[in-house]
Amino acid sequence: MLIANVSPRTGGKTTNSGWLAHALQEAERDYDVVGYDADHSQQFHAWSLSGEFTFPVISAATAKFHLDVTPPDGKIGIVDCGHTENHPDITNSVLRVADLVILHMAPTKADFDRIVDPPDKTKIGDLIAMSAALRADRQPPPTWVLLNRTVTGAASTGIYRGMMEDEGWNVLTTVIPRTELFGQSVSYPIFDARKGPFGALVTELEKRELLP
Q1: What does the alpha-carbon distance between residue 152 and residue 192 come to, in Å, rounded to a whole number?
Q2: pLDDT (tens digit, 9 = 90+) per residue, 133-152?
Q3: What does the DSSP assignment read for 148-188?
Q4: CB atoms < 10 A from the CB of 185, how many?
Q5: Which domains does the chain have, with CATH numbers?
């Protein structure tokens, strides 16, 4: 299956892609993982080398992603999409073949506005809905919001969870806190991913039957 990680500009999806991939590998079900870097920055791919990932991360920043990438048989593909605001062509292509979309957002007005009311861009929700016409099953991919960079005890987490639900989005119970561990982890190896919130995220995805 392919999990597409999408976000507005500040969503932290590359960091989350690396940690989620490792948490999947460390899970009890021992998922086999492959990464795809569909962002022109190629940070996910570079991190896989400097961080000595035990799975490959393939460069795939192309509007022909749906043609060039074959969904991995028996593996979970973690796709780090380019920011939807800047690279809608790549996101459109990934959405054509994604089995699950995770929308990464901080509980802030800036991220909320970029998702639900961008001033001169297509809404992320509209991009996902429009992908249905180009998908084999003619249905948009299942999509869930992951609140990221949350602050423990802050009211903003609950406020923006409710606001996104009011907009019709599914919102995961698991949240990813703002910590130095995650914020400074890019370029370095990842250890014990399953013991923190990313392990909890994998468990929630399993319970919701969003993973194979």
Answers
A1: 21
A2: 999 999 999 999 999 999 99
A3: EEE-TT-HHHHHHHHHHHHTT--EEEEEEE--HHHHT-TTS
A4: 18
A5: 2-202 (3.40.50.300)
